[in-house]
């Protein structure tokens, strides 16, 4: 069972954000931070730089919706300045983190076909979303388990049991299992759920390793 955890909407160094990031750094084998370039602060960037098991992917630029109907999208094909904003965001993250940024997470896990082509032109090589396009990327990292049950009218989380059941249903496959945690307007109860989800998933991974199934 190959697992990665992805934390979306990382921006400021709040007490809650610091707690979650420190927990993942200490408790899981690998996690991905999806950082919003426009809003990422120097303080949280410095903290991220201390983690050895953390990859950083670019999460759009401002995480704003530019479509009036249908699924939200920051960079739909109709938007003419996509390359400018994505490139500006990439440079900002690289300056703050002092590392190359080659992974991309589209806001709302959705973007246009032209944006995919632009990402390739700009040197991105990892694309992580819930439903990937056919694309020229070397690695596509699908999110197969989202701990959120509903995003509208507000974010509500799945029960602990439902999330674990989803992971268990996938645990005997050879596919990589991506677990998605959104970090926007989270409550104290949400924080405790996120920690519990991650602990249990890592425990399941360890059990598989003992049985010889982990690769």
Describe this structure in words.
The C terminus is likely disordered. Helix content is 37%, strand content 20%. The radius of gyration is 17 Å and the shape is globular. It has a single domain, classed as Glycoside hydrolase/deacetylase (TIM Barrel, Alpha-Beta Barrel). By secondary structure, it is α/β, with parallel strands linked by helices. Strands 3-2-1-10-7 form a five-stranded parallel β-sheet. A three-stranded parallel β-sheet has the order 4-5-6, with no helix packed on it. It has a two-stranded antiparallel sheet with strand order 8-9. The termini are close together.
What is shown here, in short?
The protein has 215 residues and is of the alpha/beta class.
* Number of extended strands: 10
Question: Major β-sheet, in short?
Answer: 5 strands, parallel
Spatial strand arrangement across the major sheet = 3-2-1-10-7
User: What would you call the structural class?
Assistant: alpha/beta
The topology string of helices and strands comes to EHEHEHEHEEEEEHEH
- Report the total helices: 6
Corresponding CATH architecture: Alpha-Beta Barrel
Mean pLDDT: 87
Q: Would you state the CATH class?
A: Alpha Beta
Beta-strand residue percentage = 15-25%
- The poorly predicted ranges are 210-215
**What is the 3D form?**
globular
Query: What is the fourth-level CATH superfamily?
Result: Glycoside hydrolase/deacetylase
The CATH topology assignment is TIM Barrel
Provide the gyration radius in Å: 17 Å
Helix coverage percent: 25-40%
Q: Number of domains in the coordinates?
A: 1
Distance between the termini: 7 Å
């Amino acid at each position: 069972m190959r697992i990665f955890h992805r934390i979306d909407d990382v921006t400021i160094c709040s007490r809650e954000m610091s707690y979650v990031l420190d927990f993942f750094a200490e408790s899981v084998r690998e996690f991905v931070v999806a950082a919003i370039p426009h809003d990422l602060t120097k303080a949280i960037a410095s903290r991220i730089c201390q983690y050895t098991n953390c990859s950083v992917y670019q999460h759009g630029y401002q995480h704003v919706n530019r479509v009036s109907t249908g699924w939200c999208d920051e960079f739909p094909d109709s938007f003419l300045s996509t390359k400018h904003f994505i490139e500006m965001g990439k440079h900002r993250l690289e300056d703050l983190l002092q590392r190359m940024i080659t992974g991309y997470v589209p806001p709302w896990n959705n973007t246009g076909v032209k944006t995919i082509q632009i990402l390739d032109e700009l040197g991105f090589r990892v694309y992580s979303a819930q439903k990937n396009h056919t694309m020229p990327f070397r690695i596509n990292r699908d999110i197969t388990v989202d701990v959120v049950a509903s995003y509208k009218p507000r974010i509500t989380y799945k029960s602990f049991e439902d999330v674990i059941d989803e992971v268990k249903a996938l645990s005997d496959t050879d596919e990589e299992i991506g677990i998605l945690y959104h970090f926007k307007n989270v409550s104290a109860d949400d924080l405790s759920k996120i920690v519990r989800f991650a602990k249990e998933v890592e425990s399941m991974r360890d059990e598989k390793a003992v049985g010889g199934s982990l690769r």
